[in-house]
Amino acid sequence: MFWKQNVVYAIIFGLVWLLQACFLQQPYYQGPDQVLYLRDFTFEQEVLHGDTRTMWLIAFYAAWSPACIKLQPIFAELSADFGLPFLKFAKLDITRYPDLAKKYDVDVSSMSKQIPTLILFRHGRELVRRPGVLCGSKKSVQKFFFTYENIVAAFSLNEFYMECKKLSASSSRSGVEEMVGGKKDQ
């Protein structure tokens, strides 16, 4: 309410606030994570044509988007909690690879309500997507609030985690058996 005391102070405060908002960026998350950053060719190589047992949760993001900046620590925490050899987390920058975003119906415009988009891939195919896109005469985007709990529930991460954990355990047991069997033969 200092603007009632002196209008000059209010104008100075407004200018200083605008300058700091323009030139001082919001800090990026730098904590622990198991997130891979994909390019177009690594996306095709790893996600589409890679190991069919591996599930991928891919975040289609834009670095300039405030919603993507808010999602970053949540996605990193999810990757640290749920990341396994057969359950991987990755991000794809849609500003660098707009053709790949269009291939998966992610709108890359600055007014898009689809940024960020999380897609779960299994066997190289899309399994679940948030926010969802309702197809009809006019495409509309379902609202989705990107919280830790909502993402875990929407993508059934607990169930997939247990499934991938069993798969990891069985593959590591078979790998140990192969090594032991190989040593006995020599």
Automatic annotation (TrEMBL):
<dbReference type="InterPro" id="IPR051063">
    <property type="entry name" value="PDI"/>
</dbReference>
<dbReference type="Pfam" id="PF00085">
    <property type="entry name" value="Thioredoxin"/>
</dbReference>
<feature type="signal peptide">
    <location>
        <begin position="1"/>
        <end position="21"/>
    </location>
</feature>
<feature type="domain" description="Thioredoxin">
    <location>
        <begin position="25"/>
        <end position="157"/>
    </location>
</feature>
<dbReference type="GO" id="GO:0006457">
    <property type="term" value="P:protein folding"/>
</dbReference>
<keyword id="KW-0732">Signal</keyword>
<dbReference type="InterPro" id="IPR036249">
    <property type="entry name" value="Thioredoxin-like_sf"/>
</dbReference>
<dbReference type="InterPro" id="IPR013766">
    <property type="entry name" value="Thioredoxin_domain"/>
</dbReference>
<dbReference type="GO" id="GO:0003756">
    <property type="term" value="F:protein disulfide isomerase activity"/>
</dbReference>
<dbReference type="GO" id="GO:0005783">
    <property type="term" value="C:endoplasmic reticulum"/>
</dbReference>
<protein>
    <submittedName>
        <fullName>Thioredoxin</fullName>
    </submittedName>
</protein>
